[in-house]
Amino acid sequence: MSKGRVTVVDIAHAAGVSKSTVSLVLQGSPLVNEATRAKVNAVIRDLGYVYNRAAANLRQTASSKIIGIVVNDLTNSFFAELAVGVDMVVQSAGYVQFLSNTGESIDRQREVIASMREHGISGLIISPARGTEAADFKPLVASGIPVVLTVRNISGAKVSSLLSDNRMGAAQAVAHLAGLGHRRIAFLGGFPDTAVFEDRLKGFRDGLAAAGLPFAEELIVGSAPSRAGGVEAIERAMLIAERPTAALCFNDAVAFGVCDGLRARRMEPGADFAVIGFDDVIEAKTAVPALTTVNVDPQGMGRRAAQLLMKQINAGKAEPEAIVGAVRLVVRQSCGAGMKNQQWRNAV
Amino acid sequence: MSKGRVTVVDIAHAAGVSKSTVSLVLQGSPLVNEATRAKVNAVIRDLGYVYNRAAANLRQTASSKIIGIVVNDLTNSFFAELAVGVDMVVQSAGYVQFLSNTGESIDRQREVIASMREHGISGLIISPARGTEAADFKPLVASGIPVVLTVRNISGAKVSSLLSDNRMGAAQAVAHLAGLGHRRIAFLGGFPDTAVFEDRLKGFRDGLAAAGLPFAEELIVGSAPSRAGGVEAIERAMLIAERPTAALCFNDAVAFGVCDGLRARRMEPGADFAVIGFDDVIEAKTAVPALTTVNVDPQGMGRRAAQLLMKQINAGKAEPEAIVGAVRLVVRQSCGAGMKNQQWRNAV
DNA sequence: CTGTTAGCGCTTTCAG
DNA sequence: CTGAAAGCGCTAACAG
């Protein structure tokens, strides 16, 4: 049945034209007679020809129509959503995406990037693993492949980045809590050695300062950025002498864990203790009001990142562009009974 | 800086050997002198050479080292976990994965598969969109590209499949509930027109029959397989004249929604109403006992699927293999106070 | 063990 | 508008 791959010369032969005519048809060139084009297309269908991009790409200087995306934890719905967003624009631009998961392993990340480079990706979107250095992108940018950093930034890397304004979001969240009358506000969850943590913590302090509240070291409780971590964090927070009455959580997973922990203590999240979680992955799919969130819309972030990358690819050689706060940050309050809805958007 | 791509001939020149020697080094052939190899490798590093797989693949009959994976909903953590599992084995086999999301769109799926084919994937793992037909895989199998179906099966497709034994899992779950003394057991959530739904429902009936319980149509409440759907389903179930006291949920998202809905009614999941959810994605990351689950271990499923695919790729032309119940199904009870832990495994 | 010689499937001048 | 010829970066015989 399939005796060797069917190639342009096969279809040229069958259609009674030459290779190059077929090639032109393939590229939708206007230089070819309508009748000829129809004939060629018919033959293509009949013979079940499939275009060989590897070969095409080898010859022409154009790009491979494949973009790479590497995330540090696909298991985290935030990144899964991000990937979906990227995939949407990538697909509709006729590209296809290499997706790899590093699991925060920097070695894996290096391998993966190398592998993608061998496959000739025409661009890379990456949420770098912890510990990534600017030098890791050197070879990529040297060969003119556009790179877009998302979620986490790497200082000194001469590439584009797309980050949400974590600092401002956190400050707003604190303002919200302070507005409700809370004076002992904890910051729960997250690994203190990440830039994101730092930013959110800074915003937390900004918010306290703006509300005229004192900063207390003891109210910062780090933990794994997971649901389990949230449980652990609230447990520890409850051991503090002068207990907090509200918390800003590092992310939504932590926030859910905090709610779990509160319920385990017979406290009602939102009523007995105010909870705000960063990110809005799980909550977005939840019909039942559970907690207040600061929303980063990961899917939208993925789309924007992909659009930015596409722009760079099409522009040939563009300057790196740093975008902060490009992503909608919404404080959505959906938690207790005594609260009203409030939303705001960051400047774009 | 980068004046045209550096190629084998460049490095051959610089190392004072010939193209083919370089090629041999690249492939780790033992036919080359140790000293020469070292020299060549040094030059490769110095010049920042990157291997061009497209070119290599064009020449040799071997495979492209890229495998495709398409899922119907990456937004669902189950599939994200699946992708992570696949990625693990794919990466360690030196392959790279094309990942695409169809969002249940059959057109998108067709496009995506076509695109992957053009890029010369050497194998495909797919959780087909609803409505996929056996014919959709015809061209792929005709060109000898191994395909592995996961999660959902397509009858008549002559390709391998890796499915969990949903029927048996559901039956076991019902047996568990019946063992606790429940007699009005609902089946909540899921779209009735999927094979998975059917299988689970069949198992549900099996379980009822085995426990000597009657089957009541009214206790089957379909909904979107999401958290929101779960809320909706439990609401509807509570309107039934003779209320259920327990439910088997289509998946864990639904189960979480059901728990939400119960709490909204001031009922305690596990104590006042028993809940079992299929799948175990979210729960696995939760420290707080929430509900009993039937565990399908999506990541393990991804790994197995990828291994199966790799086997087929390496074997050249292997027979399609259908594996059912290969994946661990565990009923893990972690919900109310009055229950004991129970586990079992399916035959592998 | 190393060099020479052909192509893989496609695009692309450059002439008809 | 179509055909002939060259070559992308690599591997695969086959000689040296």
From TrEMBL, chains A, B:
Keywords: DNA-binding, Repressor, Transcription, Transcription regulation. The keyword 4Fe-4S does not apply. Residues 6-60 form the HTH lacI-type domain. Pfam families: LacI (PF00356), Peripla_BP_3 (PF13377). It comes from the Bacteria. GO terms for molecular function: DNA-binding transcription factor activity; transcription cis-regulatory region binding. The keyword DNA-binding applies. SUPFAM superfamilies: lambda repressor-like DNA-binding domains, Periplasmic binding protein-like I. InterPro entries: HTH_LacI, LacI/GalR-like_sensor, Lambda_DNA-bd_dom_sf, Peripla_BP_I. Signal peptide: none annotated. This is LacI family transcriptional regulator. It comes from Metarhizobium album.
